[in-house]
Amino acid sequence: MSEPSPVSQRQVPAHAEYAHGNQSGHDASEALGEQVRAAHAAQRPLRITGSGSKAFLGRTVEADEVLDMRAHHGITHYDPVELMVSVRAGTPLAELEAVLAEQHQHLSCEPPHFGANATVGGTLACGLSGPRRPWSGSLRDLVLGTRIISAEGKALRFGGEVMKNVAGYDLSRLMTGAQGTLGAISEVSLKVMPRPAASQSLRLELSLDETLTRLTAWGRTPLPISAASWQAGTLSLRLEGGMRSVEAGVTMLGGESLHAIEAARYWSDLREHQLPFFTTHASHEALWRLSLPLVLNHGDWQAAVSETLGHIDEADLLCDWAGAQRWLYSDAPAERVRQLAHRLGGHAVCYTPGVVSEQDSPLMPLNTINARYHVQLKQQLDPLGILNSGRLYAGL
């Protein structure tokens, strides 16, 4: 059993703010704003970029000019006692996580990097969360406020630095997952959380049906589960929290206990798509992310798969988020995979570049109502299509 880190015992003085050597970074907001204003005046589209680690998660933006956010970096405000941090968009995510770790804190949804130089702005723009998401909430849930550069080049601020200031129409969280189509994120204030005092990971040999049944039952108990994934007959669990609750959970669940280093590597590799499941599949098979209801009858899953895709090999499926996120390798046409997701009440996103046509999007097509909302938002916030036009869907 892992012992609590001595760092977790350290007391931070009341109302203390953290002083970081590179806290100021570089403020490039004026130069970025001027570039956007010039582009808007000339009606010239811009392609917003960071490190490019998540470029595969959308359509190609048809723009010759790049708005590079990486020069705008640095932590502007960090208060460990108030559990909040404000950081510029071009700051490397790894740098932010290292600063938080010094105070034994973290971003509780453990967002994926998908690249060593991933930036905070790009991470927020894509809105992805890691294995802890069903228990800790999503990246969007951590957003307290944002500063953006509008399509007209204006510096705008939404939300604040504490949860009580987040009221009204929450444009700050709307930016999460919009991939820069509604505004270029220049700074974000995030809620941070203490790292768990104890952590232990387990492995149990179970079928997918038995795994889902047990996870449903365990969800009605106080077990401190913070991650659950299944692949090829093996359920991997992570328990986190107080020492006694984690020890009680391990005793109750049994299974094989993983060494702390092995466990950390597994959950990191799952988050970053570095497990053999993600790195050794045939190149002709596309990787799809299926986001499905948490409580999904296994029989309904099997029937839907059989009728839409036919037989799938167990080695082509990995379930994360206690079954709510399923990674599937398939050479079936995109419309059939999407049909499967729609039938089960979820949606599908293609993570393999070049699988869908250039006119299509890796994202799930919008229904009529949602498409109308997207169009209206784009017309209100970027009527000339200056910022990342067409990144999510054609015409948006």
Provide a descriptive summary of the structure in words.
There is one protein chain. With 396 residues, the chain is an alpha+beta fold. Helix content is 29%, strand content 22%. The protein has helices spanning 29-41, 93-102, 120-126, 133-136, 139-142, 171-174, 208-218, 243-253, 260-271, 276-279, 298-308, 334-343, 368-381; strands at 46-49, 65-68, 75-79, 84-88, 105-106, 143-149, 155-159, 184-191, 193-194, 198-205, 225-231, 234-241, 256-257, 286-291, 317-320, 325-330, 347-350. The strands form 4 sheets. Strands 13-10-12-11-15-16-14-17 form an 8-stranded antiparallel beta sheet, sandwiched between helices. Strands 3-4-8-6-7 form a 5-stranded antiparallel beta sheet. β6 and β7 form a beta hairpin. The radius of gyration is 22 Å and the shape is globular. The chain starts with 28 loop residues before the first helix and ends in a 15-residue tail after the last helix. Mean pLDDT is 92; it is low at 1-16.
